[in-house]
Each structure stands twice: as C-alpha cells, then as structure tokens.
Amino acid sequence: MEEEQKMIMEKITDCRRFGMMCLSLSTFLYMGMLIPGYGDVEWKAGLLACSSFLFLILSFVFYRRSAKLNEKI
C-alpha cells in the first residue's frame, strides 16, 4: 500500500512538472506572437496561436490529472 501511494505521489509530481512546462511553453509562444514583424505573416501568427492554445490545453489536462490522482490518496 505504501509503495502504491509513493507511485501516485511520483505521478502527481510528474503531472505538475509537465503542466508547468506546457504552461511556460504556451506563454513563450504567445509572447512570440506579440513580436512585431511576425504578425505580418499570417501563417506564422496562426501557427504560434495554435501551438500556444494546444500547450495551454495540455497544461490544463496535466493539472486536472494531478488533481484526480491527488483524490486517490
């Protein structure tokens, strides 16, 4: 039982780390959209916006999974 809780805690830690990584990457990509010069090329701005949104969703998924694993403890 103790090993199972330890594995769950490790998964929670991993999910939080991946969530934070996705959130910071999303922020970085969004800031790239604000740089003058890249807004002129539509496909680059669209790519940055889609990537930012995708990483934001992934961040939410990882934090949600972390919360569900935390309920198991």
Description of the molecule:
- By secondary structure, the chain is mostly helical.
- 88% of the residues lie in helices and 0% in strands.
- The protein has one domain.
- The model has no long low-confidence stretch (mean pLDDT 89).
- Keywords: Membrane, Transmembrane, Transmembrane helix.
Helix content class:
over 70%
Strand content: under 5%
Measured between the Cα atoms of the first and last residue, the distance is 11 Å
What is the string of SSEs from the N terminus onward? HH
Mean pLDDT: 89
Protein name: YrhC family protein
Organism: Sporolactobacillus mangiferae
Keywords: Membrane, Transmembrane, Transmembrane helix
Pfam family, one: YrhC
